[in-house]
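Notebook entry, cofactor series.
This is the third protein in the set we're modelling with a bound small molecule. For this one the ligand is pyridoxal-5'-phosphate. I'm keeping the input format identical across the series so the outputs can be compared line by line later. Sequence and SMILES below, as received.
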Amino acid sequence: MNFAQIKALDSQFVMQTYARHPIAIDHGQGATLWDTEGRQYIDFTSGIGVCSVGYNNERWTAAITEQIHKLPHISNLFYTEPYARLAEIVCHRSGMARAFFGNSGAEANEGAIKLARKYSFDKYGKGRGTVITLVNSFHGRTMTTLTATGQDHYHEFFFPFPEGFRYVPAGDMGALEAAWGDDVCAVMMEMIQGEGGVFPLEKSYVQAAEKFCRDHDVLLIVDEVQTGICRTGTFFAHQQFDIHPDIVTFAKGIAGGVPLGGMLAAEGCANVLQAGNHGSTFGGNPIACAAGLAVMEILDDALMAEVARKGEHIRQTIAGFGSPYVSGVRGMGLMIGVGIQGMTHKELCGKLLERGLMTLTAGKDTLRLLPPLVISQEEIDQGLAIMADVLKA
Ligand SMILES: *Cc1c(COP(=O)(O)O)cnc(C)c1O
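Returned structure with ligand:
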């Protein structure tokens, strides 16, 4: 099918919930994609932070193919090797105690909120279910994670929203202390507010928030759905903040392109959820976990060091453009935000796409870059050359 045919079908039969770009992507190799009309793009998006090992990665496709032949799915009422092995690796690389696998970021955060509420219920009884989240955060699209998301425009139309959330501005310890009460069971935050505009939190604030949680026996939930799985140059971003969260959630990049998400619990709350308390039909499916295991092998320590180096190179190069359209460059590793002025971030994203570079937007005025973690230096240079040209005065 060509683009016009695909678009016609989509327009007639698909709920129009996405403002799509006028392109249908057909296939990819490395960090390069081709559309149905044969046009080529450098990918600075990885889906949205998902395709961490790029496209047509041999090790990844082989692992999935092998697992599909053996066993694509079995219920969680049975043990499977991929689930147990992936849990072990993710725990080892994060220092956490136990893992639960679901299918998406929102589902991971739902699980984290359930775990925190039950931890509190088991110890203190009813009435301690409030979760404090940050203004400008993003935690997902289910009813509860929409409510957890600290942006007013997500709190429209779908009334009634669940209770039990309170919002404080990022970086403001006074506001966090003022928001505390006997009803609070958890504080939830991203280390870099991704959808909100790629704003990293201050290390001193994150550490003070951790201490605040300890002092009140409130669980610290770190949402690493976007920042996690080597994206920022460490396995999880919070490892660069020198903190020990009680719960960490992840999804996007964990399985390199098949749906997998989940949460990790530290020793102190690793046994809160018991048989019957939580579950998922597809969660931790053998195909998804086999994909995750391949991703874990590919994203080793050497590759993580490369992620940090490539990210630094991209940030410095963009800052060095001296473009009047760039108001600032932020981020960690290959999670990069470029502040845009003098045109909208969406206009810029469209212009780059026309020239063969795929990027994302975030917040009000941020161009967001989330390239595959395996992107080659040559692909980076091609992408940056397009940016330099489009951003010149
Ligand atoms: C993308 C994202 C989510 C939601 O993940 P889904 O897989 O779309 O449910 C939650 N939290 C953060 C920080 C995200 O970036």
